[in-house]
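In this supplementary section we document a worked example of the pipeline. Step one takes a protein sequence of length 238 as its only input; no multiple sequence alignment statistics are reported here. Step two produces a three-dimensional model, which step three serialises into structure tokens for compact storage. The input and output of this example are shown verbatim.
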Amino acid sequence: MKTLDIYKELSSNPYPGRGIIIGKSEDGKNAVTAYFIMGRSVNSRNRVFTETADGIKTEAADPTKLSDPHLIIYSPVRVLGNKTIVTNGDQTDTIYELMDKQQTFEQSLRGREYEDDAPNYTPRISGIMHIENGTYNYAMSILKSADGNPGCCERFTFSYTNPINGIGHFIHTYIGDGSPLPSFEGEPKKIAIPNDINEFTNGLWNALNEDNKVSLFVRYIDIESGKYVSKIVNKYTK
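The serialised model returned by step three reads:
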């Protein structure tokens, strides 16, 4: 698979929707993840990322403009021991709770499907990062309708053991803008990841469509120590 320039990939697509990136820095020292949200409606754009004790959550930038919290208010990132969970919905909590009961990442998602936002049936995308004793692996999942047919939920999990330095994978909800919005297709895209969190954060944010971007979260986790550094960028403020 060809390694893509993530900045070009994002700048060429006005509406990839929500996206997850997971991989490893070029020097091999850090496990890396990024999560962004976009919006077309006032309700979807009225959001910010805020830090929590174990990750981040979405909140209304202006509570008076929040018309429907369903599907837009959730915890995209939570940490369970040596695992970091990243998703585009409240399945973060499902994964957290069931993996805490010794279920696998894949098992924890069996009771979930795509989002109930007909006619888009937005895919649920999820990722899990596992760091232990200086080793690192990750997996990504997408639950989607069958080419827009809600009668079937298609489930795909992609696992990456001992990931390659400087390489990550990118999965997002939509191929691009449309009505209804067309769901992501294929396996996660292979992308390059730099060493510097500021370079990566700025590059991602600047590449996202100016009208539609809402918030971005980036985290670099030291694979040896488990210590991490995070960046949050919000277009709107509380």
